[in-house]
Amino acid sequence: MASNNTASFLASPSPRCTLVPQEPLLPGVSDNVLAIILPTIVYAVAGAFFHILDTYGIFSNHRIHPSEEELKRNHVTKWECLKSVVRYHIMQISIGLVLNHGSSPAMIGDEACRTHTTALAFRSLRNIVPIFLTTLGIDPKRLSLSTASTSPTFAQFLAGSTSTIPTDTPTSLELALARFTLDYLYPASQYALALVIVDTWIYFTHRLCHVNRTLYRLVHAQHHRLYVSYAYGAVYAHWLESLFLDILSFVIAGEVARLSARQSMVFGTCATIKTISDHCGYVFPWDPTRAVNGNGAVFHDLHHQSWGLKYNFSTYTTFWDNLLGTTWADREAAAKRYQRARDMTNKRGPLTPGTVSVVGIEKAIAEGKGDD
Questions:
Q1: Alpha-carbon distance 186 to 183, whole Å?
Q2: How far is CA 122 from the centre of its chain?
Q3: What angle separates helix 261-279 from helix 31-56, to the nearest 10 degrees?
Q4: Element (DSSP H or E) covering residue 359
Q5: Over the range 345-362, which residues count as b (16 or more CB within 10 Å of their CB) and which as e?
Q6: How far apart are alpha carbons 277 and 290 in whole angstroms?
Q7: How many angstroms separate the CA atoms of 135 and 120, rounded?
Q8: Could you tell me if 197 and 255 are in contact, meaning their C-beta atoms sit under 8 angstroms apart?
Q9: Residue 169 phi/psi, 5° resolution?
C-alpha cells in the first residue's frame, strides 16, 4: 500500500536538457544592450514628466519648495545641470557596452529540465533534514513513522530516506520546492543581495564624501549646488562621483548577485525611478517607496539643505542611517529651518502671486512621516 502511495508522488522520467540561446525581448536588440540603455530611457521619460509638472504647475500643491526657491537658491543653471546629466548617461552606457563587449545571449533550457535538475539537487540535501530535526530535539524517525500512513513521501523527506525512490525521478514535493525556489526564492535573494550591496556602498561612500573635506570640496560639493533638487537633476554630480559612487556600485552588485540581463533591466529601472523620486521635489501621498521604508523625497530633500548635510545619507533604505544615528529625527526643527529658508528667499524678492500653490512644510513632513 505504501509503495502505491509513494508511486503516486513520483514525476515523469527525466526530460531532455538542451540549452538554447534566449530570444531577446526586442528583436534586433540584445538583452545585454537593452539592460544598459533602459535606465537612461526611463530617466529621460521620468525627468521629462516631472519637468512638465514643474513648468505648468501641475500638482503644485504637492511641492516641497516653491518654484521661485529653485531659481534663487540653486547655484547651477538648468542648462549646466542638463549637460552634466547627459555626460553621466554617456559614461554609464559606454562603460556598460565595454564591459559587455562580446557577451553572448543567455543560454536557457526547458523549464521542466531546470525544475527537474533543481529537484534532484534538493534530494541530495535531504539527509540534512533529520540532522536539523535532531538539533531541535525532535525524533525524525518517530515523526516519520507517524506520518507514513497519510503521506509516505513526506515521511521519507523527514527521515532523509531515498532508498525507495528512483534516483532520476523527483517526487511531487521536491518538484514543488524546486519550482518555488526557481520562480521566487532565488530571484528574490538575488535582488535582495544586489540592493544590500548598492545601499551599503552608496551610504558609506556618500558619507565619506561629507566627512572628508577634500573629497567634499573637490567632488561632492557639485551635487549640492542643487539646494532645491528637481527630477532630471538627480544624477547631477562630478564625474568621479558618478563613476565611483554610483556606476561602480551597480557593476559590483550585478556581478556578485549574478543578475541576468533581464534582472538587471528590472533592478536598474527600479533604481532609476527611486533616484528620480528622491530628487523630484514632490510629496505624493501614494508614493510607494516612502510607504515601504520611509526613504522618500522629504528624507533626501533634508540632506540637500545646508543644515542637513550630515544627515540622511542613504538612497534606497534607511537601514544604515538608522543604525549609525545619521537620520534627521527632529521634525519641528526641520520645519522651522525650512520656513527660515523660505523667509530669506522672500527677502530676495517677492514670490510671484498665484503661480505656485506649495505644500506647507509641516504638511510635507507629516506626509513624509517616515522620512525623518
A1: 7
A2: 29
A3: 20
A4: none
A5: beeeeebeeeebebbebe
A6: 10
A7: 25
A8: no
A9: -125, 105
Taking the C-alpha atoms of residue 223 and residue 323, their distance in angstroms, rounded to an integer, is 25
Sign of the CA dihedral running 87, 89, 94, 99: positive
Per-residue pLDDT 10s for the chain (372 aa) are 444 444 334 444 556 677 788 899 999 999 999 999 999 999 999 999 999 999 999 999 999 988 878 878 899 999 999 999 999 999 999 999 999 988 888 888 777 788 888 888 877 776 677 777 788 888 877 877 787 777 776 776 666 655 455 556 777 877 888 899 999 999 999 999 999 999 999 999 999 999 999 999 999 999 999 999 999 999 999 999 999 999 999 999 999 999 999 999 999 999 999 999 999 999 988 777 777 788 999 999 999 998 999 999 999 999 999 999 999 988 899 989 888 878 877 776 654 443 333 444 444 444 334 443
In which residue are the cell numbers 530516506 written?
161
CA atoms within 13 A on the CB side of 286: 0
Q: What does the block give as the cell for 228?
A: 532645491
Extended beta strands in the chain, E state: 20-21, 107-108
Find out whether 62 and 283 touch, Cβ atoms under 8 Å. yes
Which three cell numbers mark 191?
535582488
Alpha-carbon distances, residue 35 vs 38, 107, 202 (angstroms) = 6, 17, 21
Cell of 139: 525524533
The predicted model scores a pTM of 0.82
Cell 512621516 belongs to 369
